[in-house]
Amino acid sequence: MLAAIFSLGGIGLTAAVALGFAAKKFAVEVDPRELAILEVLPSVNCGACGYPGCAGFAKALVAGKAEANQCPPGGMEVAARVANILGVEVVFKEPEIAAVMCQGDNTTASNRYRYLGLTDCIAAQKLAGGPKICPAGCLGLGTCVRACPFDAIEITAEGLAVINRGKCTGCRKCVAVCPRQVIHMVPLKTSVHVLCNSHDKGAVVRKYCQIGCLGCHICLKTVPDAYRVENFLARVNYEDADEAKAAVAKCPTHCIRDFVDGYPVGSSFEPAVVPVKSDAA
Amino acid sequence: MRQLTFAGGIHPPDNKEWSADKPIEACPLPAEFVVPLSQHIGAPATPCVAAGDSVARGQIIGEAHGFVSVPVHAPTSGEVVVVEPRPHPSGALLPAVVIRADGEDRWGDFPKPEPLSGLEPEDIVEQIRLAGVVGMGGATFPAHVKLSPPAEKPIDTVILNGVECEPYLTADHRLMLEEADRLLDGVGVLQKIFPDARVVIGIEANKPDAIAHLQQRCADSSVEVVPLEVKYPQGAEKQLIKAVTGREVPSGGLPMDIGVVVQNVGTVAAIADAVLRNLPLTERVCTVTGSAITEAKNLRIRIGIPLSHLVDVCGGLTAEPGKIILGGPMMGAAQVGLDVPTTRGTSGLLLLTETDLALRETEPCIRCARCVQACPANLLPTTIAAYGRLDRLDEAEQYRALDCIECGCCSYSCPAAIPLVQTIRYAKAAILARKRSG
After folding, report:
1. Is the CB of A116 less than 8 angstroms away from the CB of B336?
2. Which candidate, B6, B2, B10, B8, places its Cα nearest to that of B231?
3. Which residue of A53, A146, A240, B110 is 20 to 30 Å from B140, comparing CA positions?
4. Chain A / chain B CB contacts < 8 angstroms
């Protein structure tokens, strides 16, 4: 009994001394600023900054290789606190979020063939360019949903990806995986977008999609400053988008949507009034 | 005699009775040909004609680019209408030369072929390259690449692939029966390139007439005709080598690494035309079959004929096709419509009605291991597919995803209708893309 106590206790004591010595002798010096920054960062390790996780970003910040405003999920709030820790000026960066530039689900956009394979857009895209006739429309097989670290994307029952503006942090992971480049980064402060991605001529678009942009210029005529039409596809001029809403009701195919009014048909998301934090910081 | 074979594989109903007894017919020429410039594995050809040019049959209309590439030839005489992207069997729009036939079907002027005895192996291989000969079983790998192994890899066995293990297809079967002369001419050419090699013609035992015919024709030569067990994928290159020689192609290796060259019988016939008659590859034998076609036929088709023309030649459709497949049902490529043209790899056009298709919803894997038993490459398809679905490419690669031959045995045997081949192909493409980007 006693022998056991003494021998185990002895081993414990020796190990404690050795470990204590090693901890002092081989201690890794961490810049206290790095730890402070890590406290401030969102800790989702999404990689949107371009560094391996939040710790990697903190290290790069301290080393002066990264800018304080490079964390999209944190936004300007985190950027200001990081800049405070590092004692640098914070440079304002317009916050952006992701938007699926397509509303063509299975009820509105036609398919060329029946797809029964792997539920993945990249795999479907490899089969003759995907089932959807539209070369740029959402395939709705959820590759972006699986890539999103913030659970901000859903696929509607009719097969359309929709991004929740309240949950999206702008990490761009979905933008990177989408094989058809349907997801674009848009300024957070603008809620009106042309939800179409097809550069085909109007007559061609009409054949495969009821809700696609025809390039008819009606939006441009309604609010000349707020829109531009490039290659048969209208886009909102985000620098000058204050009046863009006026064209929403005029669009013949209803491909312009104001997210304040609601998400595309079939989405379960409640239209969240996104706090406009752009000018505050 | 015990029939040679490999481990694994499946026994799908072969459905060859539709067209097995139909002699090869010449397909009437359509008014317009669409000749894709990408008809082989490797770099696509670059067009060397423009709209308005008049071309003769066999004239080069696309130049080869690099070693693993072959030129493309005009399938008939006529006028080039346009060179533009057109629907391609791959599903994409790819550059093609559109030719309006003038009805004369006039051959270009080719020099008289030199006698085989006066040719060096390098000249023969160059002639085969210039004639645009590719693997005509469907893989369309340029034939001259297989026929020019480096000196440190001596070839001791040449296998002619007359297996035709894909269900429905009978093009190679008819070719062996009706055109044994061309085939054996081609064997002579191969023997000139590989003088010391053993030559074996492998034929699946469900074609006894072809086996008997070729055995009789080869009775007084050194060419062996070997019956093989009826099992899919008996005609896959690596499985055929295993059955005939007992050797295994190493993982990531090529047949030439173990001293073997395999050529499809259609390819060998085309080699004979290229070398002995100096005619480039402009036609092939193709089986048009399936329950949605009025009359199944074996046709001698030109390259670049729209599929809709083949359907017309065979009496039209009996019903709206539920699936259009170029090639066989196991490894062929489903098509979106009939507006794509035939290519050098078009061994068959299969039109199935909706009722033929066993479409089912995918269910969870029950780990029954039928795919494992069926896999002729000795892989674990369900495991690789599971890793592929999760994008865990390191593990997928460790389980030898890249050794998958995409034969479809696993998907065929899966009781849960899991798209195993598609998932493994997805993983393979992702692994290769990652390797390329470093």
Report:
1. no
2. B10
3. B110
4. 35
Q: pLDDT tens across B248-278, in order? A: 999 999 999 999 999 999 999 999 999 999 9
Determine the 3-state secondary structure of B419 from DSSP: coil
Name the burial class of residue A6, with classes exposed (0-12), middle (13-18) and buried (19+) by CB atoms within 10 angstroms of its CB. Answer: exposed
pLDDT averaged over every residue in chain B: 94
Closest residue of B to A126, CA-based?
B426
Sorted by sequence, the CB contacts under 8 Å of residue A39 that are 6+ apart come out as none
**Out of B91, B334, B422, closest to residue A129 by CB:** B91
SS3 of B191, please?
helix
Q: Which of A112, A116, A118 sits opposite B359 (nearest CB)?
A: A116
Rounded distance between C-alpha atoms, residue A226 and residue A212, angstroms: 19
Per CATH, the number for A96-258 is 3.30.70.20
Topology adopted by domain B16-20+117-276: Rossmann fold (3.40.50)
Tokens of A107: 């009820």
Q: Which two tokens stand for residue B61?
A: 């209309």
Q: Mutating which of B352, B422, B428, B434 best tests the A interface, going by the most A Cβ atoms within 10 A? A: B422
Q: Under a CB-based contact definition with an 8 Å cutoff, are residues A168 and A150 in contact?
A: yes
Rounded to two decimals, the pTM is: 0.88
B85 in contact with chain A, both atoms CB, cutoff 8 A: no
Question: What is the rounded distance in angstroms from the CA atom of residue A27 to the CA atom of residue B84?
Answer: 67
Looking at beta carbons, which residues of chain B come within 8 Å of A128? 90-92, 334-336
AA letter at B322: G
Q: Does residue A187 register a pLDDT over 70?
A: yes
Q: pLDDT digit string (tens) for B331-360? A: 999 999 999 999 999 999 999 999 988 888
pLDDT in tens, A89-148: 888 888 899 999 999 999 999 999 989 899 999 999 998 889 999 999 999 999 999 999
> Which residue, among A118, A49, A112, A98, has the nearest Cα to B430 in the 3D structure?
A118
Are residues A123 and B426, on separate chains, in Cβ contact within 8 Å?
yes
Annotated domain spans of chain A = 32-86, 96-258
**What residues in B contact A117, CB-CB < 8 Å?**
419, 422
Report d(CA B55, CA B33) in Å as an integer: 12
* Whole-angstrom distance, CA of residue A248 vs CA of residue A234: 12
Residue B413 contacts residue B381 (beta carbons within 8 Å): no
Name the residue in chain B with its Cα closest to that of A112: B336
For residue A132, the distance in angstroms to the closest alpha carbon of chain B comes to 11
Residues A202-239 have pLDDT tens digits of: 999 999 999 999 999 999 999 999 999 999 999 999 98
Domains of chain B: which residue ranges?
A: 16-20+117-276, 370-437
Per-residue CA distances from B298 to A85, B107, B110, B303, B314 (Å): 78, 24, 29, 15, 10
CA distance A100 to chain B (A): 23
Mean pLDDT of the residues in chain A: 91
Q: Three-class SS string for B49-99?
A: CCCCCEECECCEEEECCCCCCCCEECCCCEEEEEEEEEECCCCCEEEEEEE
Q: State the DSSP string of A103-158.
A: ---TTTB-BSS---S-S-HHHHHTTTT-SBSSTTS---S-HHHHH-TT--EEE-TT
Write the CA distances from B68 to A246, B41, B60, integer angstroms: 58, 8, 17
**Per-residue confidence at A279, pLDDT binned at 50, 70, 90?**
very low
For domain A32-86, the question of CATH label 1.10.540.10 is answered with no
Amino acid A275: pLDDT: 52
Put simply, whether B359 touches A (Cβ < 8 Å) is yes
